[in-house]
């Protein structure tokens, strides 16, 4: 799990150790993500399955894509499909994923890169492995998170952000036991590169075996901790947390996690995707690729898609012809 790392973590800025009286967030629930398939058949873990939307707010949906070792010819993606009313945040840990959309956004992401697509008023997009990865096979592992938009922003113009892994803010826990990558929002005053419509923070943490981390967390945000790999515990009462599990935390000032002393050889550290945001607290009407506020808005989104008002699939360049 390379993502982005450093040779000497002790050279990084350190997160402030919370005061002893700071309230550790209690664990409300721990759920295990069921496994399934997405798009053309790539394996996913449905990280938010079975969790009340009110506890997730402002997040809607998250898939852990892989981790899978593809044989040659096996890598798969998604066909062209529409979105409206929210943002997709795709974080690539291993492998390569290509993105293209009908609004002109697109590019490739690999090892620690993020593609941030604001669907807003609507667009079409496609995600797929590049041809060379399809031919060679290889490791594929990433995440896609859906972030809701408030009603006043659901019809905002689409936007695309290409966030390189080297642009994330790299921090250390106070004792150097954890590497913290701030992808969006801020942690202890250190800001990540992702520009958000909805106030949120996203951190990818790698916690060394036996290390404990107490992260200061905005008390106005909710807090979700998903285990990408490894095993550890969470909360003041150290509830076990394993790969593929999501912890929903209650109110407080601090997220407290600890990595078990002994880890598996394939997952030598505890890797966590930590999310939080200011709840929107609006009705959610979601179906398939659309996240709106009312059933009438959902029906309008389907009508607009069927009428071609969400964009058109860009034509493929023909061999021997220049693209203007």
From TrEMBL:
Known cofactor(s): Fe cation
Note on cofactor: Binds 1 Fe cation per subunit.
Name of one Pfam family that matches: Pirin
Pirin C-terminal domain mapped to chain residues: 203-310
Domain of life the protein comes from: Bacteria
Family, similarity comment: Belongs to the pirin family.
Name of the protein: Pirin
Organism: Knoellia remsis
């Amino acid at each position: 799990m390379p993502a982005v790392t450093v040779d000497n973590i002790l050279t990084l800025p350190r997160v402030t150790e919370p005061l002893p009286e700071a309230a550790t967030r209690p664990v409300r629930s721990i759920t295990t993500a069921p496994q399934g398939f997405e798009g053309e058949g790539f394996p996913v873990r449905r990280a938010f399955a079975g969790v009340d939307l009110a506890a997730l707010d402002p997040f809607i949906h998250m898939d852990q894509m892989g981790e899978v070792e593809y044989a040659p010819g096996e890598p798969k993606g998604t066909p062209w499909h529409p979105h409206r009313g929210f943002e997709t945040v795709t974080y690539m840990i291993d492998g390569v994923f290509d993105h293209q959309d009908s609004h002109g956004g697109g590019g490739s992401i690999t090892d620690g890169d993020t593609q941030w697509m604001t669907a807003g008023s609507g667009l079409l997009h496609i995600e797929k492995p590049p041809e060379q990865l399809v031919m060679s096979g290889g490791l594929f592992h990433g995440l896609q998170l859906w972030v809701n938009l408030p009603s006043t922003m659901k019809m905002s113009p689409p936007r695309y952000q290409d966030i390189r892994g080297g642009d994330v803010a790299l921090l250390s826990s106070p004792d150097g036991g954890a590497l913290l990558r701030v992808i969006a929002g801020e942690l202890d005053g250190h800001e990540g590169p992702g520009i958000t419509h909805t106030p949120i923070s996203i951190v990818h943490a790698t916690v060394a075996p036996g290390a404990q981390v107490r992260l200061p967390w905005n008390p106005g945000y909710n807090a979700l901790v998903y285990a990408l790999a490894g095993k550890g515990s969470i909360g003041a009462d150290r509830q076990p947390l394993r790969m593929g599990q999501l912890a929903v935390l209650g109110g407080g000032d601090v997220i407290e996690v600890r990595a078990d002393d002994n880890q598996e050889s394939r997952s030598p550290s505890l890797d966590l995707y930590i999310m939080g945001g200011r709840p929107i607290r609006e009705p959610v009407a979601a179906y398939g690729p659309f996240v709106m506020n009312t059933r009438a808005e959902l029906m309008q989104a389907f009508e607009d898609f069927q009428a071609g008002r969400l964009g058109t699939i860009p034509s493929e360049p023909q061999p021997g012809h220049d693209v203007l």
